[in-house]
Amino acid sequence: MELLGLILLVIFSAVTLLAALEAITLLFPDQITRVRQTLEASLARSFLLGLVNLIFFSAIILVLIWLTEQTGPVVSSLAAAGALLILVGLVGLLFIGLCALTSLVGQRMETGKPPLQAQRRGGLLLILVGLAPFIGWFLFTPLILSAGLGAAIQTMLQRRPKERISPDNA
């Protein structure tokens, strides 16, 4: 009976993750498009940037969690709030990067499909590969998480050219 519960948990988690990726894409289409363009232009750089940032911020979060156990109530509360803030920021950037990655994979799978349907197929493919024992868990999932995070950070740090206001539009 516990095995059935675990299987249902995995299925429902995959479905809700897919729904979250689609909802984020619908809410932030311009940002997802820019992150996707960054992924298309420099996938290896995005992966390395994401890996370095994932390791760095994970270490900071662990140190802040350690501080919550070692210090008084005031410093402990501040450290916990800092760790939570960093974690929320990382998860937000991860989701934006994953949305762009699923969109990219979906469009490469089926060029004639509508964007949301292509993203759904790309997201389903990435989720299923991530569920594969050992290779999916320990190789593929960290790879796509690092690439997505790196692309989101890289896009966030890019300077956008300022639009000039012409005298005719003023």
Structure notes:
The protein is 84% helix and 0% strand. It has 170 residues and is mainly alpha-helical. The chain has a domain at 20-60 and 96-155. Helix 1 (2-27) packs antiparallel against helix 5, helix 2 crosses helix 6 and helix 3 (43-70) packs across helix 6.
Question: Strand share of the residues?
Answer: under 5%
Distance between the termini: 69 Å
Mean pLDDT: 90
Largest sheet: none
Helix content: over 70%
Gyration radius over CA? 19 Å
Topology (elements, then pairings):
Elements: H1 2-27, H2 29-41, H3 43-70, H4 73-109, H5 115-130, H6 135-157
Write a brief structural summary.
84% of the residues lie in helices and 0% in strands. The protein is mainly α and 170 residues long.
List keywords for this structure.
single chain; mainly alpha
